[in-house]
Structure of EGF-like domain-containing protein:
Amino acid sequence: HNSVIIDVYSTKYHDGVYECYAGSSSASLRLRGEDIVVLPQGFRFCHKAENSACDHARACMADGTGRTSCVCYPGWSGESCSIPRDIEKANLINAPICPYWPPVITLMVFIGCVFVLLVCLYNFRIRPKHSKSIRCHDRRPHNYTSVRSKETLTKVDV
């Protein structure tokens, strides 16, 4: 039977998950220490039903009349320790304003690409069938006439 005793316990350095072994079996245990709570004169720790009055409390204490008070964890405040004092210490994560923005942006880009593709296909289909190239053609009909000359060309030595 081996055990480890931590004499000067600090929640900053010693809290965490510890692996415990006994023979061939093992278990992971989470250790979360608490400072010793010293109750004021005339108070006692809460009973089971009274503990529900405190949300994020290290301890619940009750006076002689049954009125409960809570000793809050760091980062929490309020009568029942339900108000976060510091968001980072309370480990709360604010949800983004629009948590779905990456899929929305992706969908918008996809729709834009499909639109551009459809415009290109439409322009390709309305192109004249006889056109084999992408050059601009003059669509006016050409009236060429053949020109004949009665003069004969002769070679002249210079």
